[in-house]
Design brief:
Order of helices and strands: HHHHHHHHH
Number of strands: 0
Oligomer: single chain
Largest sheet: none
Distance between the termini: 87 Å
Strand content: under 5%
Structural class: mainly alpha
Helix content: over 70%
């Protein structure tokens, strides 16, 4: 068959990359067809997820691995219920260190995509990935998920008995994070409830005199000033944390000063600093407008 061509060193890197992408596209189609047949085991879903990662379709890979994990958890719970609460054995997924290492690798890739998206330097053209990054890039805790996946990979490779201290630490660490997230969610809900109550009180309370209007306007100015100070401090803390993480990652990359990658990294840092300054400037302008509005009312 003359249509089948072997590897030709004279084709050049662009042709090699194109051939590799075509191969991966065919592999993804084949693995997707095999996955639809629901074969036993986790090999086919993991291979499909790995091909998605190679094609930078990270969110589709995340969906596959998450579904695989949820399915294994459901089967484990069913087996525990049938055995009277006794866990007989780990599932194939839980016992596969290669699955957890693949999941950890995916977390690192998604984390890097989140950083690039937040820095405004993302070049990923995958629609699902861009849509997911737009909604979750600032709140997705990929580092914690990667840490847990690496711990579970070590447990799967070395055995639960050998990793008792590690698994106990991981469970306590997860419980602390869950409690922290629950406390933050409760605080946010309480703040939202307080804001709703304040809005309801403002609607139910009428302005019966000019003196009451003056007092309300003065209180509004003071509240606006306190709100500005609080929001500005919160924004500065967030900016400092983001900048420290950026500098820490730059240090870990160990770039050569003067290289193209180093210069691009410095340009990205300058853009990040400019974004932080613009955010603070926008906050100040917004609060100034609110203050002027309150003054006019007074």
């Amino acid at each position: 068959d003359t249509s089948v061509k072997g590897f030709d060193p004279s084709d050049g890197p662009e042709k090699w990359k194109s051939d590799r992408k075509d191969y991966l596209e065919h592999a993804r189609s084949a693995y997707r067809s095999s996955d639809n047949l629901r074969p036993p085991g986790i090999d086919v879903p993991c291979k499909l997820a790995q091909v998605h990662m190679s094609l930078e379709s990270f969110i589709e890979a995340l969906t596959i691995l998450t579904d695989l994990r949820n399915t294994a958890s459901e089967k484990t719970m069913d087996s525990e219920n049938k055995s009277g609460g006794q866990r007989l054995a780990r599932s194939e997924m839980e016992a596969s260190y290669t699955y957890w290492m693949l999941y950890a690798d995916l977390m690192m890739k998604i984390g890097y995509e989140c950083k690039k998206w937040n820095d405004g330097t993302s070049t990923n053209d995958d629609y699902m990935t861009k849509r997911w990054l737009r909604e979750n890039s600032k709140k997705f805790d990929w580092q914690e998920r990667r840490l847990q996946a690496i711990c579970l990979a070590l447990e799967a490779a070395a055995g639960s008995v050998s990793c008792t201290n590690l698994t106990n630490w991981m469970k306590k660490h997860s419980e602390i994070l869950i409690e922290k997230e629950a406390a933050e969610a409760a605080a946010a809900a309480a703040a939202a409830t307080t804001a709703d109550d304040d809005n309801a009180d403002e609607k139910n309370t009428g302005d019966n005199s000019e003196e009451a209007k003056d007092n309300d306007a003065t209180s509004g100015l003071q509240a606006n000033k306190l709100s500005y100070e609080s929001e500005r401090e919160k924004l500065l803390n967030m900016n400092n944390v983001e900048l420290r993480k950026f500098d820490s990652l730059t240090k870990e990359m160990n770039l050569v000063a003067g290289s193209i990658i180093f210069n691009n990294r410095m340009a990205a840092r300058a853009a990040l600093v400019a974004k932080h300054r613009n955010a603070i400037k926008d906050l100040a302008l917004r609060c100034k407008e609110e203050e002027n509005t309150a003054s006019n009312i007074q």
